[in-house]
């Protein structure tokens, strides 16, 4: 999304951060007095051939390069007093993928309404969740709420329910924003 007016951009960032914090912390928006938010516009390292499927290992290698930059920026934001850091859409894997070529980048993202799981402290609970683990530890290490966009997947009932809208490869793919929190009381103040 492009904004010509910086006031409008600031309002959108404020609104998104305010909504995310109140949802994650599970308090009424009126109970949050203030917080410091940072938004990082990332000049990502692109996959030179986004339409060529990569193995999980090759996809992770590409993701790790962008996560290394996220690590630096999270530390910097924390040092500058940020309490929430928002990373851009498609900032980890890039864009312009086909359904099949993004498959190596996909991770199962459990529904936080259905279960409690901390990828940083419980890394062995799910396979192929290295990005979730790294983002979770990044939030924990830097004492930040951290919002990142990533490629998610959920298996679907192809075999058990042939009438469902499940794609032929047996998975739904999502462009998902994940939010991690760490180390704050319910009331954020500056």
From TrEMBL:
Signal peptide: 1-23
Reaction equation(s) it catalyzes: biocytin + H2O = biotin + L-lysine
EC assignment: 3.5.1.12
Domain CN hydrolase: 48-190
One GO MF term: biotinidase activity
Annotated keywords: Signal
Similarity section: Belongs to the carbon-nitrogen hydrolase superfamily. BTD/VNN family.
Role: Catalytic release of biotin from biocytin, the product of biotin-dependent carboxylases degradation.
Protein name: Biotinidase
Organism: Labrus bergylta (ballan wrasse)
Phylogenetic classification of the source organism: Eukaryota, Metazoa, Chordata, Craniata, Vertebrata
